[in-house]
Amino acid sequence: MKAKTPKVGAVVRRSAPAPTGAKARTIAADEPTSPKKRPGKTKKPLAPERVAAILDALAKTYPGVVCALNHTSAWELTVATILSAQCTDARVNLVTPTLFRTYPTPKDMAAASLPELEALIRTTGFFRNKAKSIQGAAKAVVEQFSNKVPQTMEELLELPGVARKTANVVLGSWYEIAVGVVVDTHVLRLSRRLELTTNDQPEKVEQDLMKLIPQDHWIAFSHELIHHGRQICIARTPRCADCTLETLCNSTDKIWTSH
Which residues are catalytically annotated? Predict the structure, then answer.
C-alpha cells in the first residue's frame, strides 16, 4: 500500500526514541534509589509542636543515651574530646586506654615527652597538633586550676585545644551542666537536614539550637542526634525507611519518603 503524504501544514507527531546505551543505563540505575515522591520544604520548620515532636521521637529512640567516648574522669573526657577532632570516637576509644595507663594524671601528661605522646595518639590523625594541645591543657590544669578540670565555660576555654564543642562535652557529660549544645559534624548535618538551622558554622548553629531546644534537653539532644547520625541518618546513604523522624523530615537528601 502506498504511504499517505501528510497534508501541507499538518503537524507530524513522532514518538521520542527510547534511551539507549549509557543514557539508558543511567536511568535504570537511578530508579531504585530515587524517592517515590520528592519532599518539599516544611511550611513551619521551627514551629514549637514540630520541634517537640522531633525531641520526643529522639528521646524514645535513644533512651538513656550517653557520650560515646570512654572516660572515667573529667580530665580523661577532656583529652578524649580533643583527640576526637577529625577522628571517630571508636578510634579514640582504642587509643586512650594505653594513653591513660601511661600518663594517668594531668601532672604525668604535662611532664611527658612530646614524641612519646605523639606516638601514642598517632592513629587519631593530626597527632602533632593534638599532642601539643593535650600537653598544653595538662600544664594549664596543673598550674592554673590545681589539678582539676574547671567547671565553667570561660575557664575551660583557657585550656589549649579546647573550644566550645569540647567545653560543652565536658560540662554536659561529666559535670551535667547545660550551658550550650554540642555541635559536632553529626549535629550540624542533621540540624540542617531537619531545617532547624540554615547556618553552616558550628557557633551559629549552636545559637540557633539553644533558642529552639529547651535547656533541660540540651545535653541529651546532642547525644541523641550524634547516635542518630551514626546509625540511621548517615551522610551519603541515609536509612530513611528505618528513621523514626522520617515523617517530620523533608530533606532533599532523602532517598525514600512516605509523604
Answer: 165, 184
Instruction: For residues 92 and 162, state if they share a domain.
Output: yes
Which CATH number do you get for residue 130?
1.10.340.30
Q: Digits of tens for pLDDT over the chain (259 positions)? A: 444 444 444 433 344 444 444 433 333 334 334 445 556 689 999 999 999 999 999 999 999 999 999 999 999 999 999 999 999 999 999 999 999 999 999 999 999 999 999 999 999 999 999 999 999 999 999 999 999 999 999 999 999 999 999 999 999 999 999 999 999 999 999 999 999 999 999 999 999 999 999 999 999 999 999 999 999 999 999 999 999 999 999 999 999 999 8
Instruction: Say if residue 144 is in the same domain as residue 160.
Output: yes
Domain termination site, one of 174, 192, 216? 174
pTM: 0.83
DSSP string, the chain: -PPPPPPTTPPPP-PPPPP-HHHHHHHHHHGGGS-SS-----SSTT-HHHHHHHHHHHHHHSTT---SS--SSHHHHHHHHHHTTTS-HHHHHHHHHHHHHHS-SHHHHHTS-HHHHHHHHGGGSSHHHHHHHHHHHHHHHHHHSTTS--SSHHHHTTSTT--HHHHHHIIIIIS---SS----HHHHHHHHHTTS----SHHHHHHHHHHHS-GGGHHHHHHHHHHHHHHTS-SSS--GGG-TTGGG---TT-S----
* Domain assignment present for 110: yes
| Domain's final residue, options 154, 174, 194 | 174
List the domain range (segments joined by +) for residue 110.
Answer: 74-174
